[in-house]
Structures are given as structure tokens and as C-alpha cells.
Amino acid sequence: VTGVFLVGGRLFPTTVDRSGRATGDGKRRREIREYLQAIDEPFAEDHPVCGEPVAFYLPQRDVAITFDARAYYRIGRSGTHAILFEHELPGVHLGSRLPFDTPDLAIDENELDPASAAFSVLGLPAEASASEVKTAYQEKVKQVHPDHGGDHEEFRQVREAYTTAKEHTG
Known about the structure:
Blueprint lengths: L1 H10 L12 H15 L5 E6 L2 E7 L4 E4 L2 H8 L4 E4 L29 H8 L8 H15 L7 H16 L3
Parallel strand pairs: 3-4
Antiparallel strand pairs: 1-2, 2-3
């Protein structure tokens, strides 16, 4: 099994984004950081909780925000409220998952970029190719399709994201 991953790593090396734009984990962290600052919630980054490192910890509320499912389940068994933050979820949606009331933030419609949101739903950087968009869509739709136990609304969002992302690939 290890050999397969080694060969795969050689045949398909990780590409480095030199555009200067934050993608993936860095982008999510930035969005969450900006959201927590916007609601004036104190937080610590890369903080250990129950022996597990979490991306964000809200000490006044005893809330741990993690991207790691294993850490989420381990922390969930303690008194700390754990939140698993999915890859495709924009940071501003954290508020609905927090175990306390959060202020409504005014969203400037000019700041919303439908293309960026579409790529985010598919878990891709905005400069992804058409084939990457298609592959990500095929994988994502398997997870959210109503015939496979998924939600109709989430399925609709993924289809719309795919259509928008296809229109914005070069």
C-alpha cells in the first residue's frame, strides 16, 4: 500500500500555488479568523484541546474548531463543544454552528464573487482547470446525491456550483 502512495507521489506531484492567493486550509483559516474578529470573539489558533491540536479554540466559550474528523470525535467526548469545519464551507457560515448566539453580519453584495463561492463549494482553488472542476464535481455529487442519502438542497448547491465553475475555467 505504501508503494502505491510513493509511486503516486512521483507520478502526480503536488503543485505549488505561486499566485499569492490563499487556497485550501490557509484560505479557510483566514476566513474563520476574519469572522471571529468581526464578531469580537477571542480565540487561539493551533491550540491543544484534550491532547488534540485544533485550528481554533474559543477559551471564553470552551469551543474547539477543527478540520480533523478524528480530533472532532475525541474532543466531542469531553466537556468541550467541538465543531467540525468542512473543506468547502465558507468561514462566514461558522456562526450557524457555534453553540451561542452570534450577531448578524452585514454582507456586502459587491464582495460576494459567485465564481469564488462555486470553486469553494467544490473544494477547489479559483484557478482550477476544467478537468479538475469536473473531477471535483463527480466526487462531491456522490457524497450529496439524494439517492445516496444526501440532502436535496446541498445537491442543488453542488450542481449550481459546478455550472458556475465550468463557466469560469479557462
